[in-house]
What we know:
The protein has 357 residues and is an alpha/beta fold. The chain has a domain at 293-355: Beta-grasp domain (Ubiquitin-like (UB roll), Roll), CATH 3.10.20. The protein has 12 helices and 12 strands. It has helices spanning 14-21, 48-57, 86-94, 120-152, 156-173, 185-190, 233-240, 244-253, 260-271, 296-303, 305-309, 319-332; strands spanning 3-7, 40-44, 61-63, 66-71, 98-104, 202-207, 228-231, 274-280, 284-291, 311-318, 337-339, 349-355. Residues 273-355 form the TGS domain. ATPase that binds to both the 70S ribosome and the 50S ribosomal subunit in a nucleotide-independent manner.
Amino acid sequence: MLQVGIVGLPNVGKSTLFQTLTKKQVDCANFPFCTIEPNVGVVEVPDVRLRQLSSASNSEKMIPTAIEFVDIAGIVEGAHKGEGLGNKFLANIRETDMILHVVRGFQDPNVIHVSGTVDSARDVEVIEMELAFADIETVQKRLDAVGGKMKAGKTKELEAEASALGKFLVALEAGKLTNAIELSEDEEVAVKSLSLLTRKPMLYVVNVDEDASADPRWVSPLGPDRLALPISVKIESEIMEMPREDQAAFLMELGLSESGLDRVIHKCYESLDLITYFTSGEKETRAWTISKGMKAPQAAGVIHTDFEKAFIRAEVVNWKDFVELGESGARDAGKLRIEGKEYVMQDGDTCHFRVGT
């Protein structure tokens, strides 16, 4: 299961956002090998298609797909030198697949800001610089090691790694994040295991005042190059305390089609380049997370590793056709396709995998 690390300066609403998100937590028993620590929550990815498919199949239960959110200790300036909980912070974030950076945008004299004033752009740069400093150290060490190996003899792989590391170092020393650096296919492979902090996808949540959360004129203070969402964490926390039917009515009053939390979850899912396919029957309807571009045998392997090895074919129907016609009806109407090992899965595919024994 993919992990999103929630980071931010102290007193920006980071832990409140995490606590609110985990009110949407799913039953971990449905996700094998999932050991949950106190600061980790497995959160459902909202998907209206799941309920419709379940209804069409008259399923006994529904199992959504999910993402892990990790509440990482607040960072302070100097974290890369071990200030505050810096070393722990950097170690924890290195294990995640994506960073959700919470930034303070609200004014409240009762909530102390570590720098004395609210300045979202400045605060973002504090954390980004700490990540960059840590990455410079990592890249420089790897460059030194690669340089030593190249003295003994150059290889295509070492040259690709040295080239990628050089690009990273130039970017980092110029104050840029490495996730904006384009690499060749060989370079990507060469540095795949490096796990740089600034190479991870990033989504920014600006924790705004209540009246700004639904303002269509809101302009991000973080500039056009950072993907940012305006969220009032206080309002989101209050919404999650309401009965489900009241939540929808309240959002409608605000002119919103979905909650801020759901927008955050969906954006994380998109940023990680994930899609969802479904299996649906009388026993259960279930959503499965896969990477965009994955082929049918690998998608089957997400259900069980043996399915990938024993894959024969996939019977695939678009979820809308499944809801409208059912599996047998879709087959009769020619909407169900037989796909082989080279089929690239599409978001919303509803599948029945045929595997050997």
